Amino acid sequence: MNKVAVLVILLLSVIGCQTKKESTVEFGQTKPELQNEAPIVKVDARTIGPAKSTEQLLIEEAIGKMKINESEPSIGYWIGMFGKNKINIAIAEIDKDKALGYTVCAGNYRPITGSVKLVQGEYHFDMNEPGTDQYDGHFVFILKPDSNSLSGNWNPFKKGIVGSKKYKLIKTTYSYNTEIGKFPQASNRLLTKDDIENLLPEELEFMRNEIYARHGYSFKDREDRMQFDSVDWYIPMGIDIRDKLTNIEVQNIDLIYYYEEYYNESYDDYGR
Question: What is the pLDDT of residue 21?
Fold first, then answer.
């Protein structure tokens, strides 16, 4: 082969390489380049937001008391609907005729204190919230150890702001479980590109929120709250559960956020 032919072949090869284009999705936006393994975490969800609140620290202090007193039949978590929201009435300590506990509901923590008396095997409670919030009120309920049930009434201190409520709750044991929910894989193993690349934005958000729900996070957002309040396994345990997140969950939350941000940036390209 003569020198001219060799030069022509080399020139054509260079031109062909330069005209190659990066592959893109149909709507013209390059999709996130992810391997089938999760990338390195850019943002650790455990570090997002302010320091743990005083309210959450008080919840954890009360949980410590519950562990000490857990052999008593009235101590524990009593779960059920409280109007339109799921509530956790936690009885942490009984000392003679005095009772101490708290409630977690709709993203809020409220301590409750008051009196209790034992009447024919049933515990009769009269408990008050502090009164420092406009939605605070007065709980009166009867706890029946034989049926693991608690029922009663709640009345607000300030009239006209919110209505009174009746409720019936069931004693429930909380345990962290990575096998429950619509997307259990988000808690029990590292997600891959194949797990999430075809999910809709709302499915990605639900998958991410479900990780927090498994740890008992109480959602302030009404729409998020409604999605989980109706689920049997969900128990509102606290208002800050960041330090409960596992390394696997932190990795997966970061990956889900990565795709959520991509979809938000490409929103118009989807034609919606």
Answer: 35
Picking from 55, 54, 53, 95, the residue whose alpha carbon sits closest to that of residue 72 is: 95
pLDDT digits (tens, 9 = 90+) for 97-111: 999 999 999 999 999
Mean pLDDT value across the chain: 86
CATH number, domain 54-172, options 1.10.4200.10, 1.10.606.20, 2.40.50.140, 2.40.128.120? 2.40.128.120
**165, two tokens:** 């409520």
Q: Among residues 193, 181, 268, which one has the least CA distance to residue 233?
A: 181
